[in-house]
Structures are given as C-alpha cells and as structure tokens.
UniProtKB/TrEMBL annotation:
This is Inositol oxygenase. Coiled coil: none annotated. It comes from Cladophialophora chaetospira. The lineage of its organism: Eukaryota, Fungi, Dikarya, Ascomycota, Pezizomycotina. Its main location: cytoplasm. Pfam families: MIOX (PF05153). One of its GO terms (biological process) is inositol catabolic process.
Length: 319
C-alpha cells in the first residue's frame, strides 16, 4: 500500500507530499525492464570478457532491463519524459539548481535520508536505496577496484534526492538520459518517434543532427536530459576531489543511448573516449549487483565513512 511521506523532522526544503513507494517501484521497474538492444550489450560483454567485471559473470542478465515486457507504467513514464525534456526545461532546471539555497547534509546523511524517504512509505521494502549503493560499492571493493571508484558506487544514485526537492515529477529524476538541443536519436529507448509530442521535435535547429552543438565539441558542452545523474554531477564536481572518471560515471550512468547503443559519437572529443571506457566499467556494478546478498549497513559504515572523508574535504555538502 502506498502511504504519503509525512515526517516533521525533514528540513523545510524537503517535499513531504511525494510518494516514496511509487517512486521506488518505478525506479525498480525502469531498471529491471529491457530493450532489445540489451542483446547487443550482452554480446559486447561476451567479447570484452576479460575487461568485464568478474563478479557478474554468472548472473542471469535476461532479468535486467527488460523493457519489451515492461508494464504500462514504464511506457507511460517514458512517454511523459520524452515529451517534457525540452531545451527550455533543461535550461530552467539548471538555472534553478544554481540560484537556489540548497539543503546541507553529509554524504552519509544523504544516503540515510534517501533511504528513509523511500522506505518510510513502505515497511515491506526488501532492499532500500542504501543497500543498492552499498551493494554496488561492495562489488567493486571485492573486485579490487580503486577507492575512488568504490566511493562512486556508493554515491552514484544520491541524486534521486532531487525527487524530494524541486523535481516536477519522476520524469525529471530517473530513467535513461539523452541529449537535448539536437535531434532525438533513434537509439534512445522506444526510438525517436517517442518524442513526437516534444515541442523540440520539429524545431528547425533542435531537430537537426548537430542542433546547437558542433561536431567534436565534447560531451561537457552537450546538455544531457536533467535527472539524478546530471544533478549529482553538479553537486559533486565542485565539492569533491573525485577524478574525472568518477564524475563521468556519475554523469553518464543512465546515458544508455551513448554508453551502450553507440549514439552521439560525433560530439565526442578525445577525453570522452577515455570516459566512455570508465562508464562501461561502472555499468555492470550498477545493474547486476542488485541480486547480491543484503549488506550490513552498520558493519560497513566505518569503512565507507573513511572513504567519504578521503574525497570530500568538507563534511557538509550543499545539495
Ligand atoms: Fe541511477
Ligand atoms: Fe544505481
């Protein structure tokens, strides 16, 4: 049963009228739902076997990202997202981010807050957000991935807090991302026809291959649809000492048309090719660690608190 979040202890900037359970359910469906193109991903992973992470080798990947059999909720979600993610909306969202007084809390508090906001609406939730973050980080730690990458796994979805700040709905928080300001690529989930109701779809500039960009301009200059990836990237880039690879993993982890489908290659510069490799290394830990054993939050906390301190010089972060 879905219960509306009501807790007096939230700071005033938090929206308490948002249904955390519905949000969590949609996140789950999106991430477990699939596209035919996932077949290509599996083949590619097979080809890159030694590069691919070791831990996920035995997982049944057919159960993840199954969009073809996705329910109406996922289809409706993408229909709304593809209609509303316009250049105008994206400029507005970035402006709001830079011009508002933002909530302040530590990374660990943010993890607990995200977990609480979602869990408190559903006492039966099996795995909370905090567990997904810890599972991703722990899988990287087991594989001997560097400390900065483990931390990236730990924080990569904290941008979902956006849903409880000033997002307009779920469509500007979760789901696959894509470039705006240029033609909607056919490799985006459900194809470019899915954008037919988007005001930018027939725009004389935004509907062209390059749109407002120039070939080779670099993805730093490309506006990626606003959501939890882009938001967290903006939060972390000025407040941590995480390397560029980590920032790319955060910014592009839902950018499936790019990192799995090969879209937007014409905008890439040299640095982006290196970043693409990093994001591909990250992706399996996000997707396939979800069936791993339930982590013990209290046991793992000291290790990760130290890791957070290593890369976030100030304990309190502006969200
Ligand atoms: Fe995510
Ligand atoms: Fe994730």
């Amino acid at each position: 049963m879905s219960v509306i979040v009501q807790q007096a202890s939230h700071p005033p900037s938090f929206r308490t009228d948002r249904d955390g359970l519905a949000f969590e359910a949609l996140c789950d469906e999106i991430e477990h739902a699939d596209i035919a193109a996932d077949q290509a991903l599996k083949k590619k992973e097979q080809d890159d076997k030694d590069e691919a992470s070791r831990f996920d080798a035995e997982k049944d990947k057919t159960q993840f990202r199954d969009y073809e059999n996705a329910c109406d909720r996922v289809k409706n979600f993408y229909s709304e997202q593809h209609t509303k993610q316009t250049v105008a909306y994206n400029l507005k969202a970035r402006h709001a981010f830079h011009s508002k007084t933002r909530a302040e809390m530590s990374i660990w508090e943010a993890m607990e807050r995200l977990n609480t906001l979602i869990d408190e609406s559903d006492p039966d939730t099996e795995l909370g957000q905090i567990e997904h973050l810890l599972q991703s980080a722990e899988a990287m730690r087991r594989d001997g991935r560097p400390r900065w990458m483990q931390l990236t796994g730990l924080i990569h979805d904290l941008g979902k807090l956006l849903f409880f700040f000033d997002a307009e709905g779920q469509w500007d928080v979760v789901g696959d991302t894509f470039a705006v300001g240029c033609a909607f690529d056919d490799r985006i989930i459900y194809g470019n026809k899915s954008f037919a109701s988007n005001p930018d779809f027939n725009d004389p500039v935004y509907s062209t291959e390059n749109g407002i960009y120039t070939p080779g301009c670099g993805l730093d200059k490309v506006m990626i649809s606003w959501g939890h990836d882009e938001y967290l990237y903006h939060v972390v880039k000025d407040q941590s000492t995480l390397p560029d690879e980590a920032l790319a993993m955060i910014r592009y982890h839902s950018f499936y048309p790019w990192h799995q489908q090969g879209a937007y290659r014409h905008f890439m510069n040299e640095k982006d090719h290196e970043m693409l490799e990093a994001v591909k290394k990250f992706n399996p830990y996000d997707l396939y660690s979800k069936s791993d054993e339930r982590p013990s939050v209290e046991e793992l906390k000291p290790y990760y608190m130290e890791l957070i301190d290593e890369f976030f010089p100030s304990k309190v972060i502006k969200w």
